[in-house]
Amino acid sequence: MHRKSTKNLFLALAIGLPLILVAILWFAVQLRQSQLAAPSYNFIYTIRSYATVSAFQLSIENNGLYLLPKANRRTVSFPEVYIYDVNNNTSMSIDYQKPNLQSEKSKRIKIYEFKNASIRTSGTSPDGYRYQYYARSHGFIFFHNNRQNKPELVKKGKRFELTIPDLEKKSFTILGWIIPENQYER
Fold first, then answer.
1. What is the pLDDT of residues 10-20, one digit of tens each?
2. What is the DSSP string of the chain?
């Protein structure tokens, strides 16, 4: 009788200890992620259709957003540029006057100036978030029938999903992070 209870105890430990260890690790990860602050820096991004090729390239220099004409431009399409507000999870379009292509053939064209802010063009925000495009598929093992592609900001495993309208069949690119003038980088 004593031998049977010892076998059962070892069996219970062999099954239970790994489960307890997984639960402790999951809880530790969740606790760490819950202590991370949400993203605090807004950013500038552009969207373009995969089907069109823009005649211009966007550039950020000296707190200004510029259009740089490409050498062999065949199509006349202008990039769509937005500012994303991370606090409200919304986008605001940067409207600019489309330049006259005949008079401004080879020079850079300033389309927007960021006043009381500086722009950081690195891939990571000052508070440590980076952009990634996350693909999720829904279905059973090999039969994925509903695929969703979502842009998000990620820091140490914590995900902050971005609400970008009309993103299907379009390319999304972050141009830079907006740092308010009275705020210093961490």
1. 888 888 888 88
2. -HHHHHHHHHHHHHHHHHHHHHHHHHHHHHHHHHTSPPP---EEEEEEETT---SEEEEEETTEEEEEE-TT--S----EEEEEETTTTEEEE---PPP-TTT-SSS-EEEEE-TTEEEE-SSB-TTS-EEEEEEEEEEETTEEEEEEEEEEEEETTEEEE---SS-TTEEEEEEEEEEETT----
